[in-house]
Amino acid sequence: MRYLPHYKTAGHIIQLGNALAWFRNQKMQSKGLTSSQSDAIRFILRHQDEEITAGDLMEHLGLSQSTVAGLLKRLEEKGLIERRTDGSDGRKSVIQPTQEGILLEEYLKDIAFQTENILLQGMSESEQAEFDRLLQIALDNMNAVRASE
Fold first, then answer.
1. 5 pLDDT band (50/70/90 cuts)?
2. How far apart are CA 4 and CA 10, in angstroms?
3. Total domain count, the chain
4. Is residue 106 part of a domain?
5. Is 36 within a domain?
6. pTM, to two decimals
7. In which domain, by residue range, is 48 found?
8. DSSP 8-state secondary structure symbol assigned to residue 80
């Protein structure tokens, strides 16, 4: 296995993740949200016609049960989601956006659009496609390790 000096690639990815989280936190601050909370509400909004559970969020976001529970609690306290007991399984809660949560959808889409434009600035269309392809390979590699643990 070949190692790059000073773990250059991993370091850049970590720095990029930190920069993205900072940018998104700055944009979400005016709405009283964190980057992670905005990821959760965006997923809920994209699937608002389905029965979303905490387990769905855990799987999609790659977060632990306790982290997702905290996110949902804060989103509920902010009036952006509501939970109701699943009619077929009383142990399961179904998550739905409130009207206030639905009103955030366009703002969240706009921030996602801004973020992507900043990330891809200066790249040709073919470079953007290659960047996306390589990021997907890296993500798949990490998810395979995560799944095997």
1. low
2. 9
3. 1
4. yes
5. yes
6. 0.81
7. 5-120
8. S
